[in-house]
Amino acid sequence: MSTLRLEIVTPEHKVYEKDVNMVVVKGISGELGILPDHIPLVTPLKVAPVKVKIGNTHESIAVHGGFMEVRKDKVVILADAAELGADIDVSRARLAKERAERRLAQRQAEISAIRAELALQRAIARLETVEKQE
Ligand code: ATP
Predict the structure, then answer these.
(1) Domains annotated on the chain, with CATH
(2) Mean pLDDT for the chain?
(3) Ligand 1 atom 17: residue of nearest CA
(4) How far is the CA of 100 from the centre of ligand 1 (A)?
(5) pLDDT, position 133
(6) Residue list, ligand 1 pocket, CB within 6 Å
(7) Known PANTHER family for this protein (predicted)?
């Protein structure tokens, strides 16, 4: 089975680098499955798990926004933050989710609501990444 190189990089470090068979991301206009030899493209990403297929195994990485660049045999994701399923602190993500939901329910000023909504999306992406990993 042919492969492509996937790199996921944040301003802090390289989170992921492997040869994989398929990458599935949530771009701003929908879900995209990338196979080797895909046409080149650049797209902004939503806050969501990135799913990877390697042989018969699947891996998930929480990717918090950023961009994906697809080249012939390489996909580079530049994200604000990203975590491997194994590195996600589930209780921290649950607490962050509850905190964000509480703030949204309190109907604060619009700017706080936007921040809470973004925090909620990050927490949900982390929890979904861990669920997909199990
Ligand atoms: P929190 O409110 O718990 O800090 P957050 O969504 O505001 O969550 P971020 O600003 O997205 O956190 O991330 C700050 C740093 O902490 C990043 O390096 C990110 O990878 C890491 N991080 C945040 N939440 C978790 C988590 N649940 N498990 C592992 N790492 C996390």
Answers:
(1) 4-85 (2.60.15.10), 89-133 (1.20.5.440)
(2) 93
(3) 81
(4) 13
(5) 65
(6) 64, 81, 83, 87-89, 92-93, 96, 119, 122, 126
(7) ATP SYNTHASE DELTA/EPSILON CHAIN, ATP SYNTHASE EPSILON CHAIN, CHLOROPLASTIC
Rounded to the nearest angstrom, the distance between the alpha carbon of 44 and the centre of ligand 1 is 20
Length of the chain: 134
Model pTM greater than 0.85? yes
Mark 14-43 as b/e (b = at least 16 C-beta within 10 Å).
ebbeeebbbbbbbbeeeebebebebeeeeb
Residue found under tokens 């929908």: 30
Q: Give whole-number Cα distances, 71 to 5, 28, 44, 75, 108, in Å.
A: 10, 19, 15, 6, 43
Q: What confidence tens digit (pLDDT) does each residue in 47-95 have?
A: 999 999 999 999 999 999 899 999 988 999 999 999 999 999 999 999 9
State which ligand 1 atom lies nearest to the alpha carbon of 90. Answer: 27
CA distance 49 to 123: 11
